[in-house]
Amino acid sequence: MAALPQISEAEFEVMKVVWKYAPISTNEITERLVRTTTWNPKTIQTLIKRLVTKGVLSYEKQSRVFVYTPLVKESDYIGQESASFLNRFYDGNIASMLSAYIDNDRLSESEIDTLRSLLSKGDKKREN
Amino acid sequence: MAALPQISEAEFEVMKVVWKYAPISTNEITERLVRTTTWNPKTIQTLIKRLVTKGVLSYEKQSRVFVYTPLVKESDYIGQESASFLNRFYDGNIASMLSAYIDNDRLSESEIDTLRSLLSKGDKKREN
DNA sequence: CTTCAAATATTACATCTGTAATAAAAATAT
DNA sequence: ATATTTTTATTACAGATGTAATATTTGAAG
Prior knowledge:
2 copies of one chain form a homodimer.
Chain A: H1 9-21, E1 24-25, H2 26-36, H3 41-53, E2 57-62, E3 65-70, H4 74-90, H5 94-105, H6 109-127
Antiparallel strand pairs in A: 1-3, 2-3
Chain A binds a DNA duplex (30 and 30 nucleotides) through helix 1 and helix 3.
């Protein structure tokens, strides 16, 4: 599992759009982000370019515009970030992480129920 | 809840030592980090200095050396980072985060048990 | 073909970070 | 008091990031 390319926070916003709508053109990416952020279109172009340079996006010229496709899977990237987060802040200990979230975020009863059922589903899988 | 100062990854390593051993002198911090990292003492000095500038550490001259104390609580900082992580990667949804960890990290039966008991403890608290 | 507009590419620039080296100040030893 | 050592402060410098502006290329319109 070679380490995935580094994706900055701003670049990640771009990637969220690409992951959701790929294949997607420069203009479509730009239109969407202009609505959800305060970024100048030029800024968005730069971010897209950097993602290509980093090998996170590939593109194909379709008629006259570029159309982008992710080279990194969203789940892979989020998975990697999650593992790294857990290690950095909770020493890799999921229980202490969950415990902190429970203490700070004061989960609702229904959230707790959802989590409980997640844990039993996990059981099922292991039974196979 | 004013946003805490930004703490970089390397600075965070320094803070872990300070949080654990404060009040602690420059030399003690340096000695410990020299053992656990590959950093040059000069690098560690720089990091300490930056933390002071950022308002994360305060110091007091004790006889002839500086002794540092954190101005930011570890739990506050980790709490803020955790909330931000959850938002950025899981849309603030704890269940989907936990679900991803369960799927990727293949928790052991005893880990699952620990998590379950965490969830029941949460119950107790809410019953009060 | 030439011109214009749209798309893409190149350049810019400040701040933050990692990683030190050099310089100055303060204590200690002589 | 001066030299030496220790501690702290200042300076350095490249790469990443946020945030664009300018320049060039290319396809479309005339």
